[in-house]
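Open question from group meeting: does this chain pack into something compact, or does most of it stay loose? Before anyone orders reagents, we agreed to write out a predicted structure and look at it together. Recording both the input and the output here so the notebook holds the full record.
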Amino acid sequence: MQTRDEIFNTLRDALSELFEIEPERITPQAHLYTDLEIDSIDAIDLIDHVRRQTGRKLDANDFRSVRTVEDVVQAMCNKQDTAA
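Structure tokens returned:
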């Protein structure tokens, strides 16, 4: 089971690697669409990458309500809790 910090670090690394976003821009409060310029296609790539890294799959319904990096971390924590 991953901690919130580990999930955040995995997400930050994925955003940096996949979309060449500077790690210092990736904060829990960063808005995916406006601050980090992630579009819906990018979000699908991000979901797939995180699934491969963590074994936790977020589906489209999980991702519809996320707006910030922290929202993604929370959604992944919720998935982790329900799988445990």
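Observations to bring back to the group:
The chain is about 60% helix and 0% strand.
Residues 56 and 79 are 7 Å apart (CA to CA).
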